[in-house]
Amino acid sequence: MDKQLVDGFLDCVREAGRVVREQWNDPREIVFKGRIDLVTQTDLAVERLLSERLPGLLPGSSVLAEESHTTLVPGDLTWIVDPVDGTTNYAHRIPMVAVSVALWRGGRVELGAVFLPVMDELFWAVRGEGAFLNGERIRVSAEAVMQSALIATGFPYSFYAEIDEVCARLRRVLLASQGIRRMGAAAVDLAYTACGRLDGYYETGLKPWDTAAGWLLVEEAGGRVSALDGEYALGSHMIVATNGAVHDELQELLRLGDEV
User: Fold this and answer.
1) Which pLDDT value is given to residue 36?
2) Are 39 and 87 in contact (CB under 8 A)?
3) pLDDT tens digits, 60-98
4) Contact 157/205 with Cβ under 8 angstroms?
5) Which of 19, 110, 156, 168 is the most buried if burial means most Cβ atoms within 10 Å?
6) Is it the case that residue 1 has pLDDT exceeding 90?
């Protein structure tokens, strides 16, 4: 991929992260989009910045962003943007928040970045060229034993409609693994899986902006991403991302059958 495009893209993502850091100690202006779904002034400021800057990097490109979207289907050449993944964390000043941006071209993610501005950790990947953290190449873990695997998950905003399934899966994975972590930001979970801090991750009810960049990170770091059954696609009900070695076993644990 053209180095000038990648460098300009990463500059945009870093600039977006600076907005998060600059507003970190400001009073929060919170609007509820749903019972537990929030948006803050920082989400809007970051999305506005990226929506203005990204199309200039690639003529003819559009932007699909969380707070301004009118569709969940990206066009042929689309920047997919989550301005602040982990808004609830941000609202409570929990630093597990990320700016997540991906380039969707020709029916797949070609370029992606997940920036944790409070931690100053910038993950990015280019299709066919690997995944990186602050300039250093990253790889998924080599853990092949589920009992020793650390798995992450998240809870969908509609958890009250599928609470039995959520709890059944949580119980099965918790009993079979070393433990479960709940970061509160899908992009962080995927980035941490890509760099080997986590061995696997699963969640339901995610949107394209939650997973697009992290999906590429995991695959370019040598991991595997799927749906519960079959290939993962933007909008799939569940994402399962792992180092590859524990993937089949995690998928099997997540298949509930007649348990609920």
Assistant:
1) 52
2) yes
3) 999 999 988 989 899 999 999 999 999 999 999 999 999
4) yes
5) 19
6) no
pLDDT at residue 253 in the model = 97
Which residue ranges make up each domain of the chain?
A: 3-137, 146-254
Cα 44 to Cα 40: distance, rounded to the nearest angstrom: 7
How confident is the model over 234-245, as a mean pLDDT? 96
217/138 Cα distance (integer angstroms): 9
Beta-carbon contacts of residue 57 (< 8 Å; ≥ 6 apart): 5, 8, 9, 12
Domain 3-137, classified CATH 3.30.565.10, yes or no: no
Measure CA 225 to chain center.
12
Q: List the end-to-end C-alpha distance of the chain, in Å, as a whole number.
A: 47
Distance CA 201, CA 199 (A): 7
Q: Which strand ranges, in their side-by-side order, compose the sheet holding 98-105?
A: 62-65, 77-85, 98-105, 108-116, 121-126, 130-133, 136-137
146-254 is classed CATH 3.40.190.80: yes
Residue 196 CA to residue 178 CA, distance in Å, equals 15
pLDDT of residue 29: 83
Q: How far apart are CA 195 and CA 19, in angstroms?
A: 25
CA distances from 22 to 16, 46, 77, 95 (A): 10, 11, 31, 13
Residues 6+ apart with CB under 8 A from 37: 157
CA 222, CA 241: separation in Å to the nearest integer?
Answer: 11
d(C-alpha 59, C-alpha 184), whole Å:
34
pLDDT for the residue numbered 92: 93
The two tokens of residue 48 are: 């506005």
What is the pTM (predicted TM-score) of this model? 0.95
Residues 242, 228: Cα–Cα separation, whole Å: 12
